[in-house]
């Protein structure tokens, strides 16, 4: 079979690295299945087909949100490491530290939520962890802070190692393609290095904000007398959260740049001037767009609010336009077979475009006034996550396991239809819930928004379609796993 | 048509455009020859310009209408709102501490105002973040602002129709978040 991932003639170190990529992806897919089923439980509860106690619902809400964000961040990082391996030498040790750190973090999160019943949402908005209203014990808050600390530390080590690996071959200006951008020079820096650098630099800044946030939490929690400022803590939380989620998207896009040309029978992409410009703009603006999470905090300085809308509008346009047109151009007249991996990368790019616009609409202050914290919000982020980056990374994983095991991919048709129909049907219920003003994060719907229950019922039907597609995917993936591992 | 539906239709239009464009690419993947690089570059530039113009248009149209209070308008009436797990207290007198909160909540989580008046809600919280939101009698979200400890957020609104406007909490605040509510009666 054609080897688009260029895995031929590996050294022993490369084989070891691949096995770890396989381990990372398989672990992420298992976590995805578990955390996804928890999401289904929540929708069943909202549909009134299940009756979970509120404290369990909100603990699951917390586990689902943090679990999904974390799972796809680490899956994206693992995919990026595999891609980077072609050009530089990321450390296997750093990846292993991140892996075991993540496992410990997962155990801590499970303990805090399922045993401790801690329900603070993915964003643990200050000072909620200190106000359990009699539901969770104090130890659960401390276990939760330990989870954040260990996940944050191990991921920071991972991010720093990738940056080190890139810096060992490219200067920062080269990795950011500035000679191409400012002087129009030809440069032997592939787009994935540029996208990786943008993502990792932004990610590191986001993780540093998380460090500050955690230190402030610890200082208050340890009884130093410090009383934190709620607005500052909210800014730090959303800066970190927004950046982490956005760079996870970019990590998936790196997978598209690395794999889609080959799958479409085209040569690898080059870093042209518009590519360099688009991703440098993305780096600058992704750091400013998070203000849109605080539009309804009227005490926030007005210029931050305006800047939030301007940055939100502009940050997504250049990188999305460049990527979308590139994928469309690679598709048209390409004659490559529609394998699941190619289809998922294609559908993932489409999901980015559709979810991205829903996010841009919600980043309009005037619109956010009516949509903030309604179901529109999970609608848009599930679109660019589930139908965007998740499909991109599932596509990469599918190709990876097939190339490693030396098997041809099966036809994509039924798998593609099940995932697309199930996924978009599930998402449509969120969006329409936003139109009907149904709040998000509600264990049960009061009379004013009882339509939320009907929408949740319809959503679960579509989830079953999606689930069927994902089970077919898993069957193809799992049956090749042993062979892929041994030939890794 | 509600503002929510207008936003939804804009998004649906975009979904249709994306669906058509991606559909054309799929249909062309088996039968057509690849596009010339110059044509792709032109398409990229065109799409970028169209989106930038749309973004500029959207910013110009919506930013000046952001719902933040201005000095130019003077409210007819001020209502103080204090959030605390898991009820909103509303009063025409300031609520600044637990005692005043308990006193206000003793009258119920509601307040009565007159139709057409410009009301300023001064919203804060005694514990965690809450979301103060107003739902019209036909159950549509018409306005909201966050209730944040240590800050007062000023939300101004004019009720054009009489009736009971439900208050729901729109910021996750703990175990009974979904049951945290109040009412504004417009006469």
Blueprint (SSEs and pairs):
The complex is a heterodimer of chains A (488) and B (187).
Chain A: H1 12-46, H2 54-84, H3 92-115, H4 138-167, H5 172-175, H6 178-183, H7 191-221, H8 230-263, H9 273-286, H10 302-331, H11 340-362, H12 365-371, H13 376-405, H14 413-435, H15 451-479, H16 481-487
Chain B: H1 3-31, H2 37-62, E1 77-84, E2 87-91, H3 98-105, E3 110-113, E4 118-125, E5 130-135, E6 141-147, E7 153-158, E8 163-169, E9 181-186
Parallel strand pairs in B: 1-4, 3-9
Antiparallel strand pairs in B: 1-2, 4-7, 5-6, 5-8, 8-9
Can you tell me about this structure?
- The complex is a heterodimer of chains A (488) and B (187).
- By secondary structure, chain A is mainly alpha-helical.
- Helices cover 73% and strands 0% of the residues of chain A.
- In chain A, α1 packs antiparallel against α2, α2 crosses α8 and α8 packs across α13.
- The model of chain A has no long low-confidence stretch (mean pLDDT 94).
- Chain B has 187 residues and is of the alpha+beta class.
- Chain B folds into two domains: 3-65; 77-186, Immunoglobulin-like (Sandwich), CATH 2.60.40.
- Helix content of chain B is 34%, strand content 30%.
- In chain B, a hairpin with a 2-residue loop joins β1 (77-84) and β2.
- The longest helix of chain B is centred in the first third of the chain and has 29 residues, at 3-31.
- Chain B is elongated and about 75 Å long.
- The chains are: A mainly alpha (488), B alpha+beta (187).
- The interface between A and B is large, with 82 and 78 residues.
